[in-house]
Specification:
It is a single chain. With 463 residues, the chain is an alpha+beta fold. The chain folds into 3 domains: 5-88 and 96-155, no CATH class; 218-302, Helix Hairpins; 310-462, 2-Layer Sandwich (Heat Shock Protein 90), CATH 3.30.565. Helix content is 57%, strand content 15%. The chain is rod-shaped, with a radius of gyration of 51 Å. The two termini are 57 Å apart.
Length: 463
């Protein structure tokens, strides 16, 4: 038989409560018995002291002997009654049958019984000497209070009543614990049930589901984490749909151009001139570049992009080599370039991948910077890392779009649009390569009026 979480939690709380109640019941019972015995012993001690005072007073006043007891046996029983019965006993109480006085005997110096008597079953006896002027004139003997008084019917009835009351209270406490356990289990499981229901909705594809809770404990934190997870999944689902739409559009554009050009050639509307074939080739190159970028980016996302790290890479030759490959195009576009990079510490890096990063960044500046424009590359370092600042001139990127330029297929429509070419994958790939090197890349407004890309790469001595 399988028990649900509610039943298990209910049983756990109830079992704990019952154990606590039983422990308290036994503890109260033990404490009561100890206190009751102490009370009996204290009362017996007071009785013996009162009887001793009464005996010694008459002993001194009546000649210094025990003849008054031997001559009048009723005196002894009256003394026992006087020291046993409560002083405040009312007449109504005196009419009822009183229990016999406790067994007590008075012994002389030789151990002979002067008055009273004991049972042969009384083994544990207490001796209370009666002293006059430093001499023991007699001894009171009585059974120990524990064995003597607990045999009395009144004490037994009182003890039985207390025991019955104790277990009645324990039973009521167990019933109350069951009710509290049920309510508490329902209360504790309510947020879990909400989370379970929301999880089923999330698994069914409803990423808008959220858990409303006012708890501030661990369950409240779990609900908050679930809401954060649902929000992240909703965002990723929107990005996935946008990615599929963007990829479809990017692939459809060159394919549509190719289809239109080929149909025009087949219909005789255009002639297969070198210019026409070159146009077709450019679209094929564009399509191939897009597919290759998507493939490389997918490898980077999956952590499967291969890196060949070298512990002694000088970044400056890489930057200058990337600039040299684009220098003619930059000059033709009217973009003046300034590069400050010399005598930098070595880093651990993959030179080929860093070449890919800086080529993509310089290509972006070439593609999106208005002429006449400026491009500045400044490399500096501190004790831990290299800092590469790449600034270009207008147009800039709005602040709300600066973090998003590293998203795949994202471009700022106002200034960096499809008319300039590219598919919006270059910076996304650059970010993943930089992260694989243990660095970071950030976007900031440039003092030149355009965009600044700031790259941090750890020094080889810091790895």
């Amino acid at each position: 038989m399988r028990f649900n979480l509610f039943f298990k939690l209910f049983l756990a709380i109830l079992a704990t409560s019952i154990l606590v109640v039983l422990a308290m019941g036994f503890a109260v019972r033990w404490s009561f018995e100890r206190g009751f015995v102490n009370y009996i012993q204290e009362r017996e001690q007071q009785r013996i002291e009162s009887l001793s005072s009464l005996l010694l007073e008459d002993y001194v006043n009546l000649g210094g002997n025990w003849n008054f007891i031997q001559e009048s046996r009723t005196w002894w029983w009256r003394a026992l009654r006087a020291t046993t019965e409560p002083q405040s006993s009312s007449d109504t109480q005196r009419k009822h049958r009183l229990p016999p006085p406790p067994r007590t005997a008075l012994l002389n110096e030789k151990g002979e019984i002067i008055a009273g008597g004991l049972s042969r079953h009384d083994n544990d006896l207490q001796h209370y000497p009666l002293i006059v002027d430093g001499e023991t004139v007699a001894t009171l003997v009585a059974p120990t209070p524990k064995t003597h008084f607990l045999d009395a019917n009144a004490e037994q009835r009182f003890q039985s009543q207390q025991l019955s009351a104790t277990w009645s209270i324990v039973a009521l406490c167990v019933l109350l614990a069951a009710l509290v356990s049920y309510a508490l289990a329902r209360r504790l499981l309510l947020p879990i049930r909400r989370i379970g229901h929301a999880t089923h909705q999330l698994a069914a594809g409803d990423y808008t589901t959220r858990i409303i809770t006012d708890n501030t404990d661990e369950l409240g934190q779990l609900a908050a984490d679930f809401n954060a997870l649902a929000g992240a999944l909703e965002t990723h689902e929107k990005l996935r749909m946008a990615l599929v739409a963007d990829i479809s559009h990017e692939l459809r554009t060159p394919l549509a151009i190719l289809q239109g050009e080929i149909e025009a050639l087949l219909d005789g509307l255009r002639q297969p001139t070198p210019e026409t074939l070159q146009s077709l080739k450019q679209e094929v190159v564009h399509l191939n570049q897009l597919i290759n970028d998507l493939y490389v980016l997918s490898l980077a996302d999956a952590g499967a992009l291969q890196y060949d790290f070298d512990d002694s890479v000088d970044l400056c030759p890489i930057v200058h080599r990337c600039y040299s490959s684009l220098q003619d195009r930059l000059n033709a576009a009217g973009i003046t370039t300034e590069i400050q990079c010399a005598h930098m510490p070595l880093i651990r890096a993959d030179g080929l991948r860093l070449t890919q990063v800086f080529t993509n960044i310089l290509e972006n500046s070439l593609r999106y910077t208005d002429a006449p424009g400026q491009l500045r590359v400044d490399v500096s370092h501190d004790a831990r890392q290299l800092c590469i600042n790449i600034d270009d001139s207008a147009p800039g990127v709005p602040p709300e779009d600066q973090e998003r330029i590293f998203e795949r297929l994202y471009r700022v429509d106002a200034s960096r649009n499809r008319a300039h070419g590219g598919a919006g994958l270059g910076l996304a790939l650059c970010q993943r390569i930089i992260h694989a090197h243990g660095g970071n890349i950030e976007a900031h407004p440039s003092r030149l009026g355009g965009l600044q890309l700031r790259i941090y790469l750890p020094l080889a001595t810091q790895l």
